[in-house]
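Q: What does the predicted 3D structure of DUF4194 domain-containing protein look like?
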Amino acid sequence: MSEQDGPDDDWATGAEAGFIDPVAMEDDPTELFAGDTGTLDVEVRRVLVRLLQRRFLQAEKNQAQWRTLLENQQIIESRLHDLFVRLVVDHERGIAYKQQVRSAELDVPILLKDDPYNRAETLLLVHLRTVFQRERGTGETSARVDVEELEQTVLTYFDPDDNNLARGQREIRNAVQRLVTEGLLAEESAGRYRITPLVEVVLSTEKLAELSRWLRERNEVAP
C-alpha cells in the first residue's frame, strides 16, 4: 500500500459518500415553507385559497385552476367542510363557489360574512338578469349591454327630485365595477359588457320575480 492509498484517504472518501449535509427545513422539497405540515400540493392549495378569497371560480377565466379543482374536488371539499363551508360546483355553467353552512341543530361558527348589494347594485342585477333571461329565451348564447343603457335604466328608479345627476351616474358606475370585479360582467370594450352566467347564480328566477314585483309596486305608488 502506498502512502497515497492510506487509511485516512479511505475514511475521507467514505465520509463524502456516506454522510450528507443536512437540508435546511425551508429547502426540504416536501415542504413549501419552514414548519409546513400541510399535505396538499401547491396548486391544490392555491385553488383552495382562491375559493376562500373570491366569490367565484370560473372555468372560462381560470382553466388550469378549474382542472385542478375537478381533479382534487373531494379533498378540497373536505378542507372546506372542516371550516363549515360547502363547495358548489356547477359543471354546466363552469362555475364553482362556496356557501356558509348553517344549521339549527348545530352551533356553527360563521366564517363567511354576507356582503349585501347596495341599491344601485341590486337594480343593476335585476336588469342584467332580465336581459340575460330574455336573450337566452330567444336562443342567443350571450347577452351584452352598454354602460349608457345601464345608467338610463337604473336612474329611472332613483329619486326624481334628486338633481345631482353626476352623483347618480357615479354610484351606478361604481356598481358596474363591482359586478365586473365579481365576474358577473365582462368588459369586452370601453363601456360594452357581456353578462356572464354568474348572474343566474346570484339572482335565481324566484328572487328575480320577487324583486321585479317589488320594483313595479314601488313605481306604481311613486308620486
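A (community wiki): The C-alpha cells above were generated from the sequence. The chain has nine helices and six strands. The longest strand covers residues 85-90.
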